[in-house]
Write a structure and sequence with these properties.
The structure holds two protein chains of two kinds. Chain A contains ten helices and ten strands. By secondary structure, chain A is an alpha+beta fold. In chain A, a hairpin with a 2-residue loop joins strand 2 and strand 3. Chain B has twelve helices and ten strands.
C-alpha cells in the first residue's frame, strides 16, 4: 500500500475497463487459436509462428509502446493481464510475447534515440519483427555484470565476439538486444547495449535446446564471431548498458510473474474441475478434506500471486518505485505456479501424470519461472536489500 | 486499480500510531506479565472516538469503512495483540451487529455508550460447540414478555471490561435455525462471569466463561428475529475474520520490524548479522508475508465495503495472515537467537500472541473448508 496522498477514498482493486477488455479479447483469442494447438506444440517443440503473427495483429507484441511507435499504447497492467491470459492456455505463448514486450520493446522505448526507435522499435512493437534479449552468458547468469562478450570499435562499426546462452525467441528472432563489454576493466560500468540484426554476418544461432518445459518457446545459444555492428546501433549511453539491463529486468520480472500467474490460474481451474467430477468411495473427491485443503491452499497462493503482480504493474504505471514489488511478484507467483500445478497433479492422481490432462504440462512449464529473469534467490537478495534500506537503523 | 491510502486514512492511522507508540508501547510487556489490561488503556481508545469507529455518524460513531478499521486494528496490534483483540472484538462483533441487526429502539439504547465509553463482546462458543457453532446448547425459553436463559459459554474475550454481551442461545429446534441472539448487560441477575483463563498468549485480554442461570431478559433484548440468530452470528463473521487477519498482521509486523532492527545491531563474525545471506533471506521471507497479508486484507475489506460477497476472500485473508504470523514470529525469535527466548525482548510475546489466531474466529481448517466449498461451487473465475 502506498503512502502517497491522493483525492481517492482508499484502495480499490477494480481493474480499468481497458484491462478488463484486454482480458476478454486475449481470452477469446487464446481459447480459439491457442487451446487447439497447445498440447501439440508442447509435444513437437514447434514454435507457433502463425499464432505469433496473430498476436502481432492483436497488438500483443508491443502493448505498452506508444501508438506513435507502432504499439498499442496501453498500461502495464493491461499488458500483464494479456500475458496472464496467454499463459493460462499456453505458457510458451506467454513468454514469446513477454520477451518481445518487456525485454526488447521496453529498453528501446526507454533508451533508444529517435532514429533507432523509428527503425527498430516500430516494427518490433507492431510484431513485423521479433526480438530476443541477449544478456546471459555461460559465466554470467545471476551475476550478469560478468560479461565476457566484447565489442571493440573499428571505424564505423563495433566488432562483437562472444557467446550468449538460454536466449528465448532466438530461432525466429530478427533483432537481438545484445550486451557486451566495451571496457572490461570497468566491470559493470564498462558494458554497452546494442541492437543487432540477426542476419548480420558473424552472428550464428545454435541448435534448439531441449528443455523441461515451455517447449514451444525457441531457446538457443547465440554466437558472435567478428560480427560487425554499425556504430549507430549502440543504444543508451556508451558504457551505461548495465543500467539498461537492470531497468529492463525490473519490468521483465513483472512479465514473468504474469506468466506464472496464468499457469497457476490454469492449474487451479483444472484441479477444481476434476475434484467436482471424479468419484471415489461413492462420493466426489472434492468432498474429502484432503482434497479441499489442497484446493484452498492453491486458491490462497493464486490470490497472493495476482495481487502482487497487479500491484507491481500498477506502481509501474504510476511511475513509482516498483523494484521490490516486482521481485516479490516474480518470486511469489513463480513459486505459486509450481505449487498449484503440483497440487493439480496430485488432485488428478495417476491421470495427472498423463499429458492428456495438461496439468503435467503446467507443472513443467511453471518450473522455469523460478529461474529465468532472476532466480528466486536473486529476488530474495533484491527484497532483502530493499528491506534493510527501508528499515535502516540510523547510527 | 488504485492502491493509495486516502489522506483521511493516513491521518487516523498516524494518530492511532502516535497513541500506541506514545502511551501503550511501554506497558505492553507488563500487561502480558500481569495478565491484565487496565481500564485506562481502553479509555484512551475511547477518547479518540475509536470505540465507535465503524458505527455510522448518525448513530454516534465515526463511520469509517472496514479498510480503515483494519488499519487501526493493525496499529494497535503492533504494540499489543491483547489490546487489539479487545478493540477488534468490540468493533467487529460487539457493537456493529447491534447497529446492523438492531431496531432503532435497540440502537438508541446501546449505541450511545458503545460508541463512546462502553465495550461490547460476543459470545457464541460453548464448552461443547466450537467450530460446529450451530450445535450450541444454551437455551432461551419465552416466558411472557421475557426470555429465560440457561447455559454456559466460554472463550469470551474481554469479560472484565465488557458492558454488553451478544449471546447466542437456542429458542427452537436443533441446528442453525433454532438459535437466537440476545444482548445481555453486565449486572443482570443470573449472569455470572467466571475467572480469566490462564492463556499461552494474548495475556491481559480477559478471556472468561459466562454462566446463565435462569437469567430473565426482556424480549426487547432479542437482536434480529427469533430463531434467526445465526444470521447475526454469520453476518459479523467476515468482518471478524478480516479483523483477526489485521490483528495478526500487526503482531507479525512488530516481529518483523524487531528482527530487521536486531539484525543490524547484533554483531557476529565481525559484522552485523544482517550481512549474512541466511539472515537476509529470512527478512525477505518475512517481508513477502507482510506485504501479501496487507494486500489480502485490503482486498477482502474493499469487497466488504462495497457490499460484495467476500466470504472466500475474508477466509483467505484470515488463513494466510494467521499462518504467516506464526511463521514470521517464529523466525523473528530465530533471528534473535537466545535473546529471542527471553522476555527482555518482545518477540517471544509476539510468538505466543499469534498462535491463537489460527484458532479463533474459525480455525485454519474451517477457513480451508469455506474456501474450498466456495471454489467447488463457484469455480475460480477472474
Amino acid at each position: 500500500m502506498s503512502e502517497t496522498l491522493t483525492e481517492h477514498t482508499g484502495v480499490s482493486f477494480e481493474l480499468s475497463e481497458e484491462a478488463q477488455s484486454v482480458r476478454e479479447m486475449v481470452r477469446d483469442f487464446a481459447e480459439a487459436e491457442i487451446r487447439p494447438i497447445a498440447a501439440h506444440i508442447d509435444e513437437t517443440h514447434e514454435f507457433p509462428a502463425e499464432n505469433t503473427k496473430k498476436m502481432a495483429e492483436l497488438g500483443l507484441l508491443g502493448m505498452f509502446v506508444p501508438e506513435q511507435y507502432g504499439g498499442a499504447g496501453m498500461t502495464y497492467l493491461s499488458y500483464v493481464v494479456a500475458i496472464e491470459e496467454l499463459s493460462r492456455v499456453c505458457a510458451s505463448h506467454g513468454v514469446i510475447a513477454s520477451v518481445n514486450n518487456s525485454l526488447v520493446c521496453y529498453p528501446l522505448m526507454a533508451y533508444a534515440n529517435e532514429a533507432q526507435k523509428q527503425k527498430y522499435l516500430t516494427p518490433l512493437a507492431k510484431g513485423e519483427l521479433l526480438g530476443a534479449y541477449c544478456l546471459t552468458e555461460p559465466n554470467a547468469g545471476s551475476n550478469a555484470a560478468n560479461q565476457q562478450t566484447t565489442a571493440v570499435l573499428d571505424g564505423d562499426h563495433y566488432v562483437l565476439n562472444g557467446s550468449k546462452i538460454f536466449i528465448t525467441n532466438a530461432g525466429p528472432a530478427d533483432i537481438l538486444i545484445t550486451y557486451a563489454a566495451t571496457d572490461k576493466s570497468l566491470g559493470p560500468k564498462g558494458i554497452s547495449a546494442f541492437i543487432v540484426e540477426a542476419s548480420t554476418p558473424g552472428v550464428r544461432k545454435g541448435k534448439k535446446e531441449r528443455k523441461l518445459g515451455i517447449h514451444a518457446s525457441d531457446t538457443r545459444e547465440i554466437h558472435y564471431e567478428n560480427a560487425r555492428i554499425p556504430k549507430e546501433n549502440l543504444f543508451g549511453e556508451f558504457n551505461k548498458g548495465y543500467t539498461v539491463a537492470l531497468a529492463t529486468l525490473g519490468g521483465g520480472r513483472i512479465g514473468i510473474a504474469a506468466q506464472a500467474l496464468g499457469i497457476a490460474q490454469a492449474s487451479v481451474e483444472a484441479a477444481v474441475k476434476y475434484a467436482n467430477e471424479r468419484e471415489q468411495f461413492d462420493k466426489k473427491i472434492g468432498e474429502f478434506d484432503a482434497i479441499r485443503h489442497m484446493l484452498a491452499d492453491s486458491a490462497v497462493e493464486l490470490e497472493v500471486a495476482r495481487l502482487f503482480v497487479y500491484q507491481a504493474a500498477w506502481l509501474r504505471d504510476q511511475d513509482r518505485p516498483y523494484i521490490k514489488e516486482a521481485s516479490l511478484a516474480k518470486w511469489h507467483a513463480s513459486e505459486a505456479a509450481t505449487k498449484c500445478a503440483n497440487w493439480a497433479i496430485q488432485v488428478h492422481g495417476g491421470y495427472g501424470y498423463l499429458n492428456e490432462f495438461h496439468v503435467e504440462r503446467y507443472w513443467r512449464d511453471a518450473r522455469i519461472c523460478e529461474i529465468y529473469e532472476g532466480t528466486t534467490e536473486v529476488q530474495k537478495m533484491v527484497v532483502a536489500a530493499q528491506v534493510l534500506r527501508e528499515h535502516a537503523v540510523r547510527a | 486499480m488504485h492502491l493509495d491510502l486516502s489522506a483521511d486514512q493516513i491521518q487516523i492511522r498516524d494518530a492511532v500510531r502516535a497513541l500506541c507508540q506514545g502511551e501503550f508501547a511501554a506497558h505492553a510487556a507488563e500487561w502480558d506479565q500481569k495478565d491484565d489490561i487496565p481500564r485506562w488503556a481502553v479509555d484512551k481508545l475511547a477518547e479518540m472516538g475509536l470505540l465507535g469507529m465503524s458505527i455510522p455518524e448518525a448513530w454516534g460513531g465515526l463511520g469509517y469503512d472496514l479498510r480503515t478499521t483494519t488499519m487501526v486494528i493493525e496499529e494497535i496490534a503492533r504494540v499489543s495483540g491483547a489490546l487489539a483483540i479487545l478493540f477488534a472484538v468490540h468493533n467487529s462483533v460487539g457493537a456493529y451487529p447491534i447497529y446492523e441487526f438492531g431496531t432503532d429502539e435497540q440502537r438508541k439504547r446501546w449505541l450511545p455508550k458503545l460508541t463512546t465509553t462502553d465495550m461490547g463482546v460476543f459470545s457464541l462458543s460453548e464448552p461443547g460447540s466450537g467450530s460446529d457453532a450451530a450445535a450450541l446448547s444454551a437455551t432461551a425459553v419465552r416466558a411472557g414478555d421475557d426470555y429465560v436463559l440457561n447455559g454456559s459459554k466460554n472463550w469470551v474475550t474481554n469479560g472484565v471490561h465488557a458492558a454488553t454481551f451478544l449471546v447466542f442461545a437456542r429458542t427452537g429446534g436443533p441446528g442453525p435455525k433454532g438459535v437466537s441472539a440476545f444482548v445481555l448487560e453486565r449486572g443482570m441477575k443470573g449472569l455470572s462471569i467466571g475467572k480469566c483463563e490462564d492463556k499461552m498468549g494474548l495475556r491481559g485480554s480477559h478471556t472468561v466463561t459466562l454462566m446463565m442461570d435462569d437469567l430473565r431478559v426482556p424480549a426487547s433484548h432479542l437482536l434480529g428475529k427469533e430463531n434467526e440468530g445465526m444470521k447475526v452470528a454469520l453476518g459479523s463473521l467476515e468482518k471478524g475474520r478480516i479483523g483477526v487477519a489485521a490483528q495478526a498482521l500487526g503482531v507479525m509486523r512488530a516481529a518483523f520490524e524487531a528482527a530487521v532492527k536486531y539484525s543490524q545491531e547484533r554483531q557476529a563474525f565481525g559484522a552485523p548479522i544482517a550481512k549474512i545471506q541466511a539472515i537476509q533471506f529470512k527478512l525477505a521471507e518475512m517481508e513477502r508475508r507482510v506485504q501479501a497479508a496487507k494486500l489480502l486484507i485490503q482486498r477482502a475489506a474493499w469487497l466488504k465495503d462495497r457490499g460484495k460477497p467476500c466470504g472466500r476472500e475474508a477466509s483467505m485473508a484470515k488463513l494466510y495472515t494467521t499462518e504467516a504470523a506464526t511463521w514470521v514470529t517464529h523466525q523473528a525469535i530465530q533471528v534473535h537467537g537466545g535473546y529471542g527466548y527471553v522476555k527482555e525482548y518482545a518477540v517471544e510475546r509476539y510468538y505466543r500472541d499469534v498462535r491463537v489466531m489460527e484458532i479463533y474466529e474459525g480455525t485454519s481448517e474451517i477457513q480451508r473448508l469455506v474456501i474450498a466449498r466456495s471454489m467447488l461451487r463457484d469455480g475460480v473465475t477472474v
